[in-house]
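Dear colleagues,

As part of the handover before I leave the project, I'm documenting each prediction I ran so the next person doesn't have to rerun anything. This entry is a single chain, and its sequence is reproduced below.
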Amino acid sequence: MDINEGVINLEKMTVNLTLGFMEVSGTQYTDFNFEYRISVPWEMVTKEVASKFFKRRKEKPNDKSEDEIQYAKKNTKYVTIKLVGYSLDYEVKLAKRKK
């Protein structure tokens, strides 16, 4: 994280959770404007879309492997969205992932 002249720059960071992981980066200005990029693994997106589209019930985990923290793999494909605007008026767009 870098703060310079009222601008906070967030370098790409990975957030690891039990549900999966995501990459977050962006810029936050002191006037509440922002530009964030959020990258989510394609596998996680397709799994959630399929469960909503086909109304599948989530199975209860029978082992503890479901509760383990998930980490990125080298060949993971991502879907990236870009959030631009301020807290009350913002746009969500698909974007290219920054390497």
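The first strand starts at residue 2 and ends at 4. The chain has a mean pLDDT of 84.

All the best with the project,
I.
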